[in-house]
């Protein structure tokens, strides 16, 4: 009789102990259990780098995670994106992608090693930003109309720099060429900083830039913004007119930034990352920091961000093909 009582009692005691062991194991392997690498596919100092480091810093402060930015620049951001696509899908390699390398580049480069829709899972949209056309503060170009008049009078003499061939920013300049029926000469650089140095030095007439990349120099009075390319004015540059306002109806080019992981990354990891980034984006401090950089914070679910990626991927196919631009 005693044996009959002891056996069920032993089982009853063992069950909670077993669950405690499982719980302890789960806690010991909870994500993240080691540092997270955040691939930044552009050099330090540009808009992508600024936002990536801001997210990494705030995640580290808020969650005590270790998020390490890793700049892998080149080829309009495609080198860093390709490296992230090859990473093991565990959630310990994430990448700050944007429209340039996730949407535009696949239609420009003939031998790109990744397909953004198939090779990545969207995690968290961070921000969007208009593109801004800027010139040196002492430039002869006081308005966008001054640029158009000069380009019409002497085609292919007005120059504009961009952070690289095939970026949304480069194509914004080409789309404006078509809309204004002018011919400005494009000068590609390896990232925003190099282009910025040359426009400040007067080596190129204009720079077409993301607002975050140009914002510090605009605030310092060293760059004059002539127009933003989005459908509505930038919150950070409320006095700067849109290209559409200046007579180019329906002109609308903007870019977005967001986090991606290699396809096959566990869904619970994606959900954890999305939830924590969205919590950050909801804080007044983070909103203010992003707006101060010239971008507009905007949170999404992974599903919403994935849908945006697919929609823009198909949309920009037609834009790139219409432009005739290709990169070997």
Describe the 3D structure:
The protein is of the alpha/beta class and 328 residues long. It contains twelve helices and ten strands. The chain has helices spanning 2-28, 47-63, 78-86, 99-108, 116-119, 144-153, 168-180, 192-201, 211-219, 267-281, 284-292, 302-323; strands at residues 36-40, 67-71, 93-98, 120-136, 159-162, 185-188, 206-210, 223-228, 254-262, 296-297. Strands 1, 2, 3, 4, 5, 6, 7, 8, 9 and 10 form a ten-stranded mixed beta sheet that branches. Helix 2 packs across helix 9 (211-219) and helix 4 (99-108) crosses helix 12. It is globular. Mean pLDDT is 89; it is low at 1-6 and 8-28.
Which word captures the global form?
A: globular
Describe the sheet with the most strands.
10 strands, mixed
- Give the beta-strand count: 10
Task: Using the CA coordinates, give the radius of gyration.
Answer: 24 Å
Instruction: Give the helix tally.
Output: 12
What percent of residues are in strands?
15-25%
H/E series? HEHEHEHHEHEHEHEHEEHHEH
Sheet/helix structural class: alpha/beta
Residue runs with pLDDT of under 50 for 5 or more positions: 1-6, 8-28
Share of residues in helices: 40-55%
**Span of the ends, CA to CA:** 84 Å
**Average pLDDT value?**
89
